[in-house]
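Lecture 7 notes: from sequence to structure.
We start with the chain below.
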Amino acid sequence: MFGYIIINKPEIKFREFDIYRSYYCGFCRELKHRYGAQGQATLSYDLTFLIMLLTGLYEPQDRVGACRCAAHPLEKHPTRINEYSEYAADMNILLAYYKCLDDWTDEHKLNKFFFSRMLSGDYRKVIRRYPEKAKAVYTGLENIHTCEKAGDTDVDKVAGYFGQIMAELFCYKEDPWAETLRRIGFYLGKFIYLMDAYDDIEKDEKTGNYNPFRSVWENDREHFDEYCNHILTMMISECSRSFETLPILENISILRNILYSGVWYRYEIIRHKRLSKKDETENV
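Predicted structure tokens for the same chain:
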């Protein structure tokens, strides 16, 4: 359900991409430092956005360094790490643990079951540090599972539960910015959930897995992309509206690149692939 909140590399300056990558590499390094190789394996781009958002808002002191890794063994890559990298690492473990359990429950993927067992000790550590965050994630996912079992087609309702999860993760602390951060997380969470559903609709149709867009896909396939685009646009517009009220100056163009352009990168790939397949079918 992750990997949608990314940068649009062709639309950003080289220097800005290097900064973005340094936070991403720092995040990877922090996951390994705190949770070892299994923690590092949970790395995703989505929470890199959270790190940079909180860094731009609260302006902590970055620890700047460089390191080699298995993915890039021949040269060192710059890294930037701060307290929000540490926080994001903990939240990433929470999400990854439950994602593995979800994949095991839905599709009986043995590798996900065993990986969840590997993460269970790290998961318990995070629960002790952030019991309220862990409770919010658990409650939100239980609500989603209830909707899935009931075959609930209320798109706004089920996406809202994942939005509530991300709202709590985005709220680092209770201060004057807490509610704004919650709104950003809420609408971004809904966007992620719905983008994932849009991405998986054909696979879910074949497997019979739950998908909130299933009835729209089956009943009005001709306007499916237009329908999904409209909903996704509303979600990211509300997210961006709240984002623009924050007094962020540092790396603002990188954050805007992600929100206004990067989040649509996967959507365009999915849409073009689907349209190409449709054209091939019609030309047969």
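Points to note: The two ends are 34 Å apart (CA to CA). The CA atoms of residues 175 and 265 lie 33 Å apart.
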